[in-house]
């Protein structure tokens, strides 16, 4: 079994962050997202807090090759081995750019496939069949994406709103078909409602009993250990992927966000109840204000700050290895 990166399959891997955005454009939609600022002004010391809190047109573009190289060099120096770019179609995915960044930094990058939620769908997506959509994802995993030979190593992030749009449902089921055909893991972006993860898994369970399904954004969607345990019982991975985002304010919905200490408390509770092997950790960096070059935490925040915190809070080295190396590697493995 191997990991499928943009430069080919690899067998060995160290620290893996399974949900980031190396090159993306989350502002690429005609519908205003949350409390986004219309400003395209660069980030500076005077506007950093407001930009970080609400995000701006400039902030929502993480698409500069030089920025990406600078950031991933620091990720590699901190101990990072592999990073997953979960940028799906419509979010500014850049296969050739990912290859360049990987070659220049030595960091292995795994590219996503499929489509994000309805606000980012191309107009013709609703006219295509489930089989046609599945066929495109399968080609991207096995042959190459966007008329290249650069293959995706993950199906996702597949975006859902709440309630789920009919086209999103078709995309999700096509993604399940492609998952079963290729063996690539399926990553889901659930809608912003506590009912959304269970609803998404119910749809998946109508198609397959596979356990290589990742439910993203647990830390902005579920807020009690009981709800997390109920989701874990469906067999999916629970991905806490907003580490470093420590403001309680959430610009996209009326949600009180946790901080990193709260995240680790939830994860510790899940581990103590026997679910350690179903937990993934990441940061979901998709804004310039989250990059170290612009005053943010950078991709190495987990390595520099969270892992030491874990060791101070009752996790041992085996726990850290399971959560940051073993679990994401098992989730991402594909038969050659």
UniProtKB/TrEMBL annotation:
Pfam families: PTE. A divalent metal cation 2 binds at residues 157, 189, 217. PROSITE patterns: PHOSPHOTRIESTERASE_2. Gene3D superfamilies: Metal-dependent hydrolases. One of its GO terms (molecular function) is hydrolase activity. A divalent metal cation 1 binds at residues 19, 21, 157, 284. Its cofactor is a divalent metal cation. Binds 2 divalent metal cations per subunit. Keywords: Hydrolase, Metal-binding. It comes from the Bacteria. InterPro entries: Metal_Hydrolase, Phosphotriesterase. SUPFAM superfamilies: Metallo-dependent hydrolases. The keyword Metal-binding applies. Belongs to the metallo-dependent hydrolases superfamily. Phosphotriesterase family. PANTHER family: PHOSPHOTRIESTERASE-RELATED, PHOSPHOTRIESTERASE-RELATED PROTEIN. This is Phosphotriesterase-related protein. It comes from Prauserella marina. The lineage of its organism: Bacteria, Bacillati, Actinomycetota, Actinomycetes, Pseudonocardiales.
């Amino acid at each position: 079994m191997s990991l499928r990166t943009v430069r080919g399959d690899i067998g060995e891997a160290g620290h893996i962050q399974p949900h980031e955005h190396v090159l993306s454009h989350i502002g690429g939609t005609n519908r205003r997202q949350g409390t986004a600022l219309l400003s395209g002004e660069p980030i500076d010391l005077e506007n950093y807090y407001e930009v970080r809190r609400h995000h701006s047109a400039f902030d929502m573009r993480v698409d500069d090759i030089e920025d990406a190289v600078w950031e991933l060099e620091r990720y590699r120096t901190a101990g990072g081995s592999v990073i997953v770019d979960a940028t799906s179609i419509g979010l500014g995915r850049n296969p050739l750019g990912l290859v360049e960044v990987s070659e220049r930094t030595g960091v292995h990058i795994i590219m996503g496939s499929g489509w994000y939620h309805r606000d980012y769908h191309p107009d013709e997506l609703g006219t295509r069949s489930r089989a046609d959509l599945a066929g495109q994802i399968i080609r991207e995993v096995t042959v190459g994406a966007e008329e290249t030979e650069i293959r995706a190593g993950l199906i996702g992030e597949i975006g859902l709103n709440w309630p789920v749009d009919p086209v999103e449902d078709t995309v999700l089921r096509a993604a399940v078909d492609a998952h079963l055909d290729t063996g690539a893991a399926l990553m889901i972006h659930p809608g912003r409602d506590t009912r959304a993860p269970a609803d998404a898994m119910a749809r998946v369970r109508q198609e397959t009993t596979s356990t290589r399904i990742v439910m993203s954004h647990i830390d902005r969607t579920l807020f009690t250990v009981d709800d997390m345990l109920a989701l874990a019982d469906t067999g999916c991975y629970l991905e806490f992927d907003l580490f470093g985002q420590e403001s309680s304010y959430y610009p996209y919905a009326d949600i009180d966000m946790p901080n990193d200490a709260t995240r680790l408390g939830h994860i510790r509770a899940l581990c103590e109840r026997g679910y350690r092997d179903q937990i993934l950790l990441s940061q979901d960096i998709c804004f310039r204000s989250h990059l170290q070059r612009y005053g943010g935490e950078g991709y190495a925040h987990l390595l520099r700050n969270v892992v030491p915190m874990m060791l101070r809070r009752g996790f041992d080295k085996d726990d850290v290895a399971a959560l940051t190396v073993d679990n994401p590697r098992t989730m991402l493995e594909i038969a050659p």
